[in-house]
Structure formats: structure tokens, C-alpha cells
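Please, structure for the following, as C-alpha cells.
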Amino acid sequence: MAAVKPKVELLNYSGEPEKIVALAAKLCYSNSSIGGLSENISKKSQAEFIEKLLSFGHTSPIEHISFTFGTEGVSRALLAQITRHRIASFSVQSQRYVSSEGFNYIIPRGIESLGREAVDKFVAQMDTIQGFYNEWQSLLDEAKGKGEASNEDARFVLPNAAETKFVLTLNARSLLNFFELRCCFRAQWEIREVAYLMLKHVKAVAPTIFKNAGPSCFSASCKEGKMSCGRVSEVKKLLSK
């Protein structure tokens, strides 16, 4: 057992993403062949065109490109939140295969802020839960035999803090929506941290498309109204790095 931190890796993405977006968008207004259009687009940067496209709110062409992330060191609580983003594909590690040797877990920031004594108490509670899991696994093994059948019932005592791992794929339009909601300081801290890690990766490979990605206050005005966090300067500092 160990406390772990979020880790996000960009596993794959559409090749030449900004060229694909430009091609898809320009095809709507051109009588050129796809081959000829592709050749012309390759001759120069499409950054200015894509910026204009996005400023008009014409975002359907960016659905043609997708990004696949490998994510680990996150909690089952985060998994419950991120799967609300329905236009996405998920492959999630099953808790049927949680080992009796110990599950990893995430320590909430609020508990960390209380100091070492609070963290030690939380870790002790995780150890206790591991003991509960081992006990039920043993009892179920005796009744049902070793294997998945025991794990799938024993896992009911595991906490939301238990680590999970998943592979996630979204198209760029869904990602922009994800970043608007989850990079906001009103989002829960863990999914916000994952969102910023994801954003860092996609900015490196599609900088024009994700130039203004982030909460609404970064490029326009806050949409939270009276619920605004009032931390616009922090957002701009984070996203301008």
C-alpha cells in the first residue's frame, strides 16, 4: 500500500491534428478535391485560419481529431466525476484484481493541510480497510473458492480513496468543454489537477487549437455568476505558463 499522486501520459493522438481540422473546415467551402486541398494546406501554417474558425464558434471540424490519455494515481472518486463526460471512451482497471497485498490510495488535500498527524491517521484508516478487505476475501475464498468471485464482493469495503487507472479518449471539441469545466477553481481539486496535466500535453501537439483552452474566465468572462471564485488572475497565471 502507498499514497500516490496523479500521473497523465498522452498515449496517442491524431497525426497532424491542426492540418486535419483545417482540411475538414475548408472542405465545407471549397470545390477543390480533397487531395488538392490537402496539398495546399500543407504549404503554410494554418494557425491563423484555425484561430478565426474557433473565434466564430465553428467547432465541429475539431471533432475529427482525438487524444488518448493514460491516467493513474487517481481515486475512484475522480472516476465517478470524469465519466460524467459522456462523449468519451474509457477503459478502467477492474477492482476485481485488487491484490490482497495492498491497494494504493490518494490522500485528500484537505487532510494533508491538517498536518502530519492527520495524514498518519488517514493512512492508518487505509491500513484498517485493507484488513477488512483481506478478511472478506479470505471468508469468501472459503465459501466460493479463490479468484474473481471473492475479489468482486470483497471490494465493496474499499474506499473512494482507492487508486484506479484508466485510458481515456476524447475528441478535441469534448476536450475544450472538459477543460472549461474542470480547469475552473470551482471544480474538485483532484480532477482539476488531472485536467491541467492533460491540457499541458495537448497544448504541446496542437497549440493553436488549445491556445485559449481553460475555464471561461481565461479568454472571456466567468460563467459562474454569483458563484465565481474570484481567482481569475491565478487562472491566467497557470494557463500562461
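The longest strand covers residues 66-75. The two ends are 35 Å apart (CA to CA).
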